[in-house]
Here is the input.
Amino acid sequence: MKQGVIVWFCTCFFSAHCLAQTDSLKGKIFSLKECVETGLENNIPVRQNELAAQSYKADWQQAKANLLPNVNGSWGYGWNQGRAIDPFTNGYIDQRFSSSNIGLNAGITLFSGLQLQNLIRQTGYAYHASEMEWQQSKDKLALDIILAYLTVLNAEDTWRIMSEQAEVTRKQVERLNVLVEKGAIGSYLLSDMKGQLASDEMSAVNNYNALQTARLNLAQLMNIPYNKNMQLQRLSEGELLEMYPATAQQVYATALQHLAQVKAVELRAKSAEKAVSVAKGGYFPSLSLNGSLGSNYSSVSESRTPTTITEIPTGGYVTIDNNKTFVYQEQQNYDYKKISYNSQFKNNLGSYIGLSLSVPIFNNLRVNTNVKKASLNAKYAKLESENTKLLLRQTIEKAHVDMTSAYERYKALLEQVTQYKESFRSAEIRFNLGTIVSTEYLITKNNYDRARLNLTQTWYEYIFRTRILDFYQGRLSF
Here is the structure.
């Protein structure tokens, strides 16, 4: 008896505390769409998948850019001390001087066994596959949030039903207590009812705890702080008026066309096939067009300007009439002047253009090994795609069977609740009139209570199953 009072007090305390905080959050009701959008915005793995997709996109863009020419420029300036080669005269000198050079090199691959073209297709498939994987992560999170949302609603309804059951039993306890005090009935009837009240209140407490666990799970999926009084927008039961329209085969056929998970594995398989073509391109020669433009500067470079002509003795002589006559020769004199930096680069400018052909003859079987590994990866990716579709078909078939079972059980429970409700109404009237004992009344009440709980849980189970089937068809509704 004391335990029943304590349980009842705890239930009332939890209920009052919950209602007080609900008032403080009045107006803050989360819809299913808001929950999903909040979860997608805050979920870190989803954002990581987005970054992974952007990385694959960068690889795809780089693969396309590989078709463009490769152009590089260079410039250098340095100082020399001691014996070195003069970049201007290309001869050895032994003095301190400075030098500089500038160059521009360009090259473009004309043919490489179609490796560049196949690499574009390979990285393109990989990028689109990563997009589908990103979408799959968002869809999976949305489905988890939807299921968690419905779990909270189910827990709320279950707690409400259990609270109502406890309230009905509590009123009977109050009524029987008055009758016992007046001596109209035996105290054993009151004891039975108090025991039932303790059981109902304990069930209410347990279901309240289950409700808070469901709210915690939803808050964690949304990545928001836990709020024990989170309010959710209710669903309409009208959608259960008709059976789910699609068969398992129709759901599977739609899933093959629209489900992001299926598209992702198919694109991964295509990317792996193109990787084989990229590897096979290593068997073919590679032809490229190259060109360069360059110039240089030397601080010891000078320009010569002719000035005067002088005669200098050669050291030899000729004899004319027995007289020695020394021989002179003319020597051109020059005016030397340092050549400026810009002038040297302009005067020393040179260019080159040519074709380069590389023919693979033997490369330690690396190309052959790469082709084998790429072929094995392609077969693995194809098997992964087939296995994903096989598991998907089996999962859809089971989900459809579970959905059908839930619908049939709901229809049966709907009729059961109707009959038990009438039976309980009649039993309550007869019990109040004293025509039946408490045992018969409690049996009827418990049957009605179980039927209501089973009906509520089955209704939500049906909604679970339909949402899963919608997910496989790529049309989650919020």
About this structure: The beta strands are 29-30, 70-80, 83-85, 92-94, 97-111, 231-232, 286-298, 302-320, 323-338, 350-358.
